[in-house]
Structure formats: C-alpha cells, structure tokens
Design brief:
The protein is an alpha/beta fold. It has two domains: 253 residues, Rossmann fold (3-Layer(aba) Sandwich); 128 residues, 3-Layer(aba) Sandwich (Rossmann fold), CATH 3.40.50. The chain is 35% helix and 17% strand. Strands 9-8-10-11-12-16-17 form a seven-stranded mixed β-sheet, with helices on both faces. Strands 2-4-3-5-6-7 form a six-stranded mixed β-sheet, sandwiched between helices. α5 links the parallel β5 and β6. α3 packs parallel to α13, α6 runs parallel beside α7 and α9 runs antiparallel to α10. The longest helix is centred in the N-terminal third of the chain and has 18 residues. It is elongated and about 95 Å long.
Length: 452
Amino acid sequence: MFCSLLCRRFDLRRSVAAACVILFAVGLPIAVGGCANRVATSPAPRQVAPSVAAPAEPQAILPGPPDAAASPSGAQVQVALLLPLSGPSAGIGRAMLDAAQLALFDIADEHFTLLPRDTEGTPEGASRAASAAIAGGAELILGPLLAGEVEAVKPVARQANVNMIAFSTAGQLAGDGTFLLSFPPRQSVERITAFAHEQGATRFAALAPNTPYGQLVVGELRDATTAVGASLVQAEFYEPGATDFRPVVRRLASFDERKAALGRERQQLQTAGDDASRQALQRLAARETSGDTGFDAVLLPDGDGQLKAVASLLPYFDIDPAKVRRLGTGLWDEPGLGTEPALIGGWFAAPAPAARSDFEKKFRALYNQAPPRLATLGYDATALAAILARKPRGTAYTAASLTDPSGFAGVDGIFRFRADGEVERGLAVIEVERNGTKVVSPAPESFERPTS
C-alpha cells in the first residue's frame, strides 16, 4: 500500500499548538493526546498519486483517521527518537527533533507517543539511550544519526527484536533490522550520470575530496558510467583541508599539456606564413590552450565552501562551462550555489525542492530559523512511524510493513526501504541558476517495480 506522509497544513494561528511544542522537555515523551483537544481540525492533506514509471492503477492512502479494521487497540504506541541533543552535533540533532514535533502535530493521533533520547553524539551515549528507550517500551527506534552511533545501537535493538530506522548514509550498517533513511550518494550519482549521458555526455571526470565520501562517490561514478555505456576517463583528489586547489585543477584540465599544444600550433602557423595561417593566428591570440579536456562532464562531490573554491578555478584553467557540464551530488542541495558563476548551469540529483517547501515555511515560521537540510529526515521518519502506528497491533513496525514495495511519500518525495535495509528514493535533476535552482528532470511520483 502506498502510504502518503504529506503533512496537513499547519495553521500558524494555532498558538495553543505552538505552546504545546514549547512546553516539551527533553527526556519526556511527546504525546499528541495532551494537546489535541485544543488544536483546531486541520484541512485535508494534499494527495500525491504514485508514479516512478506510472503503475497502471496507482493507489494513494492519505494520513487521516484509520478505518475500523486498522484501528489500534487503545494502548499507546511508543517510538524512540535517538538524536545527538548535546555534544558537537547538537545543532542538527535539535533541529531534527523540532521537525519531528511538527510531524507529531501534522500526522499523529492520541495513541502515538514519541520518546526522544539524547545520544550525546557518541556510540556509548547512543547505546545507553537505546537501552533506556527499549526499557521504556519503544516498539521502533528512529535514529541515531551518526555511523558510530548506529553501529553501537544495532546489537541492542537486535537483541530486543526492535527494528530501527537510522539516519546514517553508511550502507554497510543496513540490514538485520536496520533501515537507513538518508540520502545515499549512490542513487544521486546514478541519477545524474544517467541524465547527463542522455544529454550527450560520454566521457566523465571527477574532482573529489580525498575522504571516504569522495572515494566512495568516485567508485559509484565508475560503476554508473559503465552501466550507461559511458566511461570515467579521469579522477583527481584533493586533501579536505587544502586551501590552494590550483595544482589539482591544473592536473584535471591537463593545462600544461594543452598550453604546450597551443604553442606548437602557433609555431606551425608562423612558419607557414600565408594569409590563412595569419588569420588563424589572430583567432588564437586570446587562447591559452589548444584541444579539449578529454571529458564532457565533471563531477564535483563537495559542499558549499570548498565546492565554490574548486569550481571558481575551472574556467581559470580553461575548462569551458559551455563544453564541460558541472555535476554534483546531494551535497549541492543547499541555497546560494549560484553566487559562484562557474556553478551556474550545473546539474545535481536530489529530492525535488517543491516537495519540502511547505515544511520549510512551517519550520521557519515556528522556530524563526531555516531548517538544516537533514531536518526533513526527522519529519519523515516520525510521520512514517505515526502512520504505521495505525495498523493492527503487532504489525506496525515489522519488516513487511517497513518494506512495502509501493513505498511512502514524504516531504522529501517518495521513498521505500529495500529488503537489505537501504532506502530507495525518487530524485529530480536540478539545475543551478544565479538566484536559485530549477528542476530540469522531475522526480518520479511512484515506484513501478517491487524491490528485490
């Protein structure tokens, strides 16, 4: 069944509902029932029809009162939310908790209770938090966020036979009761590579940080290019703490070789000395290099600061944006990239921005700040748990429920969990513009094939 998690509209005039959020204290369960009788009825949620390659008869199930067959027994359904609410990652952890509270008021009913627990941003803290939540009756664990935390919680959850929806991108942690609700780099690389190839790119290059993420993405690019019949012709890496990217961009551009080639071409024309050669020399007067770079598209899998610094050097070393398309991963899914001219016209794959626009407006209005990009994971995970809590007792959080092949529709678009615990998402291709972005290839709205 296709479960739509799209939020009901949050009426910002409901000051009482906002007060209920403010009264929340970390370590205490959040239950909707305590405030529900003071919250006005929300308008009907938006309907999103499924469609990745449009099934013949898509079915959408919207959040709302459960039918009689799926009504809960009346007992509370308790779900743990493990986040770093203290320590170095507390900022993102608290924002994800704020997003989870929005989902409570949008989706959950009086039978659903959320149990937030602080992981302290450490494996030891995460293990303690999981043990406490399970002892408190948690039937599902949402989180934790960091790979080391997830690794520490896995045996605790497995021993208690409690499934976990974690937020890490570390694919090796998926499976055996752990499902990863994140933004896997593999899928964004596959999507953007396939799209660029459809537009004519056949020779790909990569300029990546020398980090586990950078190495992973380059490996995914190699596989993705092979899958579409293209090739990865060059990959260059830079140290993550570097401040001078000129040497690595110079290598990527084969600048010295192409500059030498231009010198030889000029020498040949000067030796010829005829009118045609003199005209050709005039055309080459403003050129610094001769020949192309050897690739049609370059993947730059980095975030805001270093991405802009690296990209700004591409035209300086004669990597022409009119001939070489800039490509990105989900790390590009942040505002303001168009302030770097070299990134304008670049493409990246990510959930469609329009899908989360209502969430971002609500978050900003209620909390007086823009949500960090990962905040949507807190919303979608909580909304999913609240929707599934309406199923008959004992069936809500089984592997069969979590791996529904039709998937779910959240503020980051459609997603579904595979049997191996990895998440599969429907991604759009987005182009960077000077003052924002635009979708150049829409995200699918449903899944056609069941997961394997």
